[in-house]
UniProtKB/TrEMBL annotation:
Keywords tagged on the record: Lyase, Signal
Protein known as: Alginate lyase
This protein's GO CC annotations: periplasmic space
The keyword tRNA processing belongs to this UniProt entry's keyword annotation: no
Lineage: Bacteria, Bacillati, Actinomycetota, Actinomycetes, Kitasatosporales
UniProt source species: Streptomyces inhibens
Amino acid sequence: MTAAPAAAAARTAHRTTPAAPATPVLDGRRLQQAKQRLDAGDPALRHAVRQLRTKADGWLDQGPWTVVDKPGPAPGGDPHDYLSQAPYWWPSQPRTPENPRGCPYVQRDGERNPEVDTGTDHADRGKVFDSVSTLSLAWYYTGRAAYAEHAARILRTWFTDPDTRMNPNLDHAQFIPCKYDGRAIGIIDFSQQFTGVLDATAILDTGAPGWTGADRTAMRGWYRDFLGWLVHSEFGKEEAAADNNHGSFHDMQVAALAVATGDRALARTTAGAARTGRIDAQITADGRQPNELARTRSWHYSTFNLVALTRLADIGRHVGVDLWAYRGPKGASLTGAVDHLLPAATGGRWPYPELDFHAYAASDLVHAAADAGDRKARAALAHLEAPPGGDLWGLRPAAEQLDSIAG
């Protein structure tokens, strides 16, 4: 067989018998099954793929992005260090030549300062994470090479190319001008989106055009270094001790990175510790999350924390830890926390402070609980508000934060 027919045969084989990717969060077997149902003509999945392709097509003429493109380096002076600014901190004084920043900065919880998108890597980081997740899934379900090739280009530029790569740390995330050069809570910048990158590279590892063995090795090296920083740095240790969504997302990232780098023992320990350390500590018997309800955006943060915990439950399934089945001594459970959201998610009133309520923010969480056997959640599925861009649960069955808040 000549080279061209061989390549065509490989593309056909991909369309009909895709490998199940070794995704740390997503269930690779479910992706494989969805691809097979799609090829068999499943109308709901065909509709979802059209929506996915629309998103993917929008990324094809954007990027790649790099941390070295910002106007100036992070406070440490290395242009390869990631830099972001605390989103809820604002200047309190007029800007003058003597005080060009308007320092000191003061906190206004839930009110996002638009200057965080200028002079930092925050916005570009979001584009990298969103684009590669979308493009890799679009390639997996359609076989269109352009999607995978662009995802590979974006990943190499941001993570592994020596000239443009990001250093594997978040030492200067969410700095506050004139106050802090970086903060532990800046780790939340990577939140659930970074685990989407881990899933994306696992999907590309199934044979994507433009993604090489060298790419895979380089990315795994970056993952190992970043995992080491998350576990051993002072910022990482501080974030691990947080008793709200920050601690939940730290654990989720550690567990996912552990799976991606082959440290299943660390993944198992981290997921297992969430029973008492996260579920018991953060959720009441009636499903409330008091630390999140105290925020000015209590709906957003209640769903946000559950994105971390339900994704951690997804990771746990890969290593034999069932967080959905857990019931704490005082009645805390993931199911109870999702059930607490159901009235507002299906058109009712949310009785707590919220500056920008979107019912669809809970949609993925309801899907996750329904998949885990929650009958209340299953009954609510027909009454959910569709998120912008459509319901993609059938293509990527793991919760994402649907009401985007850049911070």
